[in-house]
Specification:
- The chain is an all-alpha fold.
- The protein has one domain.
């Protein structure tokens, strides 16, 4: 199930991004803008990682502590959507971070 989910995220979110265009857009930035971009990407990375971890913790808590609650189906489906939305966003942020760090070292 996890490998199907990873493949789906890759094929729907990460494949349509043109790596060459992203590379040349970042490379065209001035050095000061590049360091500001790196700082912004780091902040978003920390926020999205924290949000994703909290979403997974909430999903785990709801499935282990309230397995027979009357609103369990709605609760689990709501809590399962948040990590599914945060995973592609986090992977995009990580890709941008790697590009920025690589280009700042050139």
């Amino acid at each position: 199930m996890q490998s199907v989910l990873i493949w789906f995220v890759y094929s729907q979110v990460l494949c349509p991004i043109s790596i060459g265009k992203l590379y040349h857009w970042i490379r065209g930035q001035a050095m000061l803008k590049l360091y500001v971009l790196i700082a912004i990407v780091e902040v978003f990375d920390r926020l999205l990682c924290s949000f994703g971890q909290d979403a997974w913790d909430s999903l785990y808590w709801n499935t282990t502590r309230r397995p027979r609650h009357r609103r369990m189906f709605v609760s689990v489906s709501d809590h399962y959507c948040a990590p599914l939305l945060s995973m592609p966003a986090t992977s995009l942020i990580h890709n941008a971070y790697v590009f920025c760090i690589r280009l700042s070292s050139l």
